[in-house]
Amino acid sequence: MADFEETLYDAVAQKFRIDKLYFENKTDHQHLMIFHNAALGRVMTLDGIVQTTEADEFVYHEMMAHVPLVAHGAPRHVLIIGGGDGGMLREVAKHPVETVTQVEIDAAVVEMAKTYLPKHSAGAYDDPRLKLVIDDGFAFVRDDTGHYDVIIVDSTDPIGPGEVLFSDDFYAFAKVRLAPGGVIVTQNGVPFFQPDEVTTTHRRLVRHFTDATFYCAPVPTYYGGFMTFGWATDATELRGLSPTIIHDRVERAALETRYYNADMHGAAFALPQYVRAAMQSE
Amino acid sequence: MTERHVTIGAAAELAAHYEDLVRRYGSPLLVYDPAVVRQRYAELQRALPDVALYFAVKALPSEHVIRTIDALGGGFDIASGGETELLLREDVFGRRTIHTHPIKKDAEIRSALRYGATTFVVDNDYELTKFVPYRSRVGILLRVSFRATDAVVDLSRKFGCAFDELPGLLDRAVALGIHVKGLSFHVGSQCTDATKHVEAIEQCAALMQARAETDATPMSVLDIGGGFPTDYHRTGLDLEDWCAPIRAALDQLPADWQRIAEPGRALVAPAVTCIATVVGKSRRDGIRWYYLDEGVYGSFSGQLFDHAVYPLQVLRDGPVEPCVIAGPTCDSIDIVAEHIALPELEPGDLVIGHEMGAYTAATRTRFNLLPDARFINAEALY
Question: What is the structure's pLDDT at B19?
């Protein structure tokens, strides 16, 4: 079997050995693979880009779920856009929320993930609080009437099916779907190689939200160091919570995690200078 | 127009082979022999040992050819979404492709990126700005125009910037934050010799080296395009000899530069043989006419679009008379050969077209809704 060589950048690329190919789909102008790699467990790639691996998905999913949920303090209704692999749902379900609405554009992705990436959802798709909607995320935030305390945009790369989830209109509609005191977080790429993504997202988010920034976590198979998560809310106090409050909340939540903890929560908002520069870039 | 090479008669064994293929698979046929591609690929590798070969898919976009090149470890030069779809179906990873069409829709750039192509060719300022949204992901080759006056197909009129535009485009790319990793050129196809290739290599190399003194990210890729000829006229053309001046010019480049070529015709032209059948005959103004089941709207389309003059062969031997060979459509332009002399043919006789792999099936039309010539792989007959 050939190696998988990532095609995210022309000048540099990471390469994974394909030890066993479990699943491949080449319809709808896209190329999805799930394979096993000795070091990383099961790896899912889409259009030549690593989406998730069993070995390091915890960093991504824990940081994208627990940071906004703990910062909010008392989330009752959560909206996940995308996240078909189920990892985000698994982490959100660790909180005592009332409802989780997940909007995935493709029902086949959910079924495929349950079959080939079962550790990601780890049974979370059976959670009675879940309302799974098969719809375009953009259409959902435009047409839905509900309000959510936390919105998590677990999208693919902006060049591809996830494109509209990075658009100005999407952020505008998503803001309407936020309950008072709510926060939206977004997947925003690896700024060391993709500073433009930080610049563009920041420019769009500041138009709609009083507090628009990023927080960071290094996901090893997202090559290039820190990745950024967009953070957008009108509840400016959510970002400045005292360490004591965060520690109390994390302790009370009794989360079982491998990356996230109260210290990482606060530290994640410390941005390297090159990320700040990208935010301020025109 | 250059004289067409015609072979009268065929060895009994070969004639029987053609007749057997038509009995089994019908007519017209395009018979693809992967062994010829392997041989030509090896010849080109020997002729240009440090050059990475990217097969120009446009020449013959067939899954059979893709598989042959893939097995040889070759790369692929693509120019459209349809070509990326074909490669995706054949499990060729995008890393092994370069996208060489100088003018692209945004959607085309995005689909090529999703497929995994990250090398793109650009030849003007407007096209350069299209890559600003993708600048973190791509490496650009600037295409320069070098026109070979002796090329049968001129590829430097429609595309390629003037050499003196290069410094301005390079500065512009730096200002836009777009990485130009090298230069490319296409002197034209089916040149009589490699003089223009050599001139282009020397000029590009001089500019690349001069810019390396000043630019923060120096260029390190030189794409010498295609244009390697095939022997349509049976002159005994030797690819290695033909390439020798190019090899010598490339040897002068810094060893760490990447050299790329995009052979299409040279790899596949000799690998495909067309077998057509005489379906009717007449005499017009005293000249003998034969009508085939394949013509210039079909596999012989390259005679119009590509200016190729394919060698023809008839199986029958005997005294010759002047004749015209026409294609099957209603159009009077559909003439395969004129001013040739053949023995008297009869309906059912076969006419063989050689060197018919490049820009033949690729450019055929749907005119008259005639069926396409069946494409068969000589190594996968059943």
Answer: 97
Question: What are the C-alpha distances in Å from A49 to residues A14, A109, A128, A158, B364?
Answer: 10, 16, 33, 12, 37
pLDDT band, very low/low/confident/very high, at B190 (cuts 50, 70, 90): confident
- DSSP conformation letters of A80-130: EEE-TTSHHHHHHTTS--SEEEEEES-HHHHHHHHHH-HHHHTTGGG-TTE
Is there a contact between A7 and B117 if contact means CB atoms under 8 Å apart?
yes
Strand partners, B29: B275, B374
Amino acid at B52: A
- Give catalytic residue positions of B: 330
pTM, to two decimals: 0.92
Which helix (H) or strand (E) segment is B113 a member of? helix B106-115
Count of other CB atoms within 10 angstroms of residue B129: 14
Q: Give me the residues of A, 8-67, that contact B with CB < 8 A.
A: 8-11, 13, 26, 29-31, 47-48
Active site amino acids of A: 154
- How far apart are alpha carbons B198 and B48 in whole angstroms? 13
Taking only the tens place, the pLDDT of each residue in B255-265 is 999 999 999 99
What is the rounded distance in angstroms from the CA atom of residue B86 to the CA atom of residue B79? 12
Residue tagged 């790896």 (tokens): A43
Contact residues, chain A, for B118 at CB < 8 Å = 7, 9-10
Q: What is the mean pLDDT of chain B?
A: 94
Average pLDDT of the segment spanning B295-311: 95
Q: pLDDT tens, A130-169?
A: 999 999 999 999 999 999 999 999 998 888 878 899 999 9
Question: Contact at 8 Å (CB) between B367 and B293?
Answer: no
Q: Is B348 exposed, middle or buried (0-12, 13-18, 19+ CB in 10 A)?
A: exposed
Give the integer Cα–Cα distance in Å for B269 and B60. 9
Which residues partner with B52 through β-bridges?
Answer: B260
| Residue of chain A minimizing CA distance to B221 | A11
CA distances from B146 to B157, B163, B339 (A): 9, 8, 35
Give pLDDT tens digits for B71-125: 999 999 999 999 999 999 999 999 999 999 999 999 999 999 999 999 999 999 9
Q: Work out the minimum CA distance from A1 to partner chain B, whole angstroms.
A: 11
The residue type at B223: D
Q: Looking at residue B215, what is its pLDDT?
A: 86
Residues of B within 8 A of A47 (CB-CB) are: 114-116
Nearest residue of B to residue A163, measured between CA atoms: B110
Q: How far is A42 from A19, CA to CA, in rounded Å?
A: 10
Q: Residue B137: which of A2, A9, A29 has the nearest Cβ?
A: A9
Residue A155 and residue A162 in contact, taking contact as beta carbons nearer than 8 Å: yes
Quote the pLDDT of residue B132: 97
CB-CB neighbors (< 8 A) of A48 in chain B: 93-95, 114-116
Say whether residue A224 is in contact with chain B using an 8 A CB cutoff: no
